[in-house]
Amino acid sequence: MQQALATMLTMQNAMNARVHPDWQDQGFAWYRALWIECAELLDHYGYKWWKAQHPDMPQVQMEVVDIWHFGLSAMLVENRDIPSLAVQLDAQIHAHDIAEPDLRLATENLARDTLASRAFPLAAFLDVMHAAGLTADTLYATYVGKNVLNFFRQDHGYQEGTYRKEWQGREDNEHLHELLANLDNTSPTFPDDLYAALARRYREAA
After folding, report:
1. Alpha helix (H) ranges present in 46-135?
2. In Å, how far from its chain's centre is CA 70?
3. Are 113 and 124 in contact (CB under 8 A)?
4. With CB atoms counted within 10 Å of each terminal CB, which end of the chain scores lower, N or C?
5. Are 166 and 159 in contact (CB under 8 A)?
6. pLDDT tens per residue across span 180-196
7. Which residue range is the domain that position 161 belongs to?
8. What are the C-alpha distances in Å from 85 to residues 4, 18, 125?
9. What is the value of pTM for the model shown?
């Protein structure tokens, strides 16, 4: 897990630097992006008792991974030493006991603690992760996938507003989930294979 954490932290740093080379000194409100993702997660899971709703768990899990992106970013602002941060996170993750197994309540706790601290409450996030059915291994695989998608978006005009997020009537996150199920995430070429697969689908939808 420690190596996986170091890899994810390194990938997150690279992604943020792609958006802004000096990203750690810009004062970006990572906490704000994080709690808003909590609302998006609940929207995919369902909270409206006045209408029929069915949880979209693949999208719920993607939202958890989006939260993790912002959480990693917030922690990298506070501690820029990736190896030491990976050791620290590994110890906290292994010591964590689940406090709230209900996904809705765990998500609300995460949003509340994020707003109160304006930081990333790792313990509350771990409750959400477990409640959403993600293990450390699936978090890692899905994170790598979403990181590749984020690079793909940037390479295709996301910041400039020219990127098409919906392909053939479906959001790119849905295409990503489908591709992840059909690629070997243990392969050393996994990120490149995924990027190429995304590019093919994007071209086909043009």
Report:
1. 57-78, 82-95, 103-117, 122-131
2. 7
3. yes
4. C
5. no
6. 888 888 888 888 899 99
7. 2-204
8. 12, 21, 17
9. 0.85
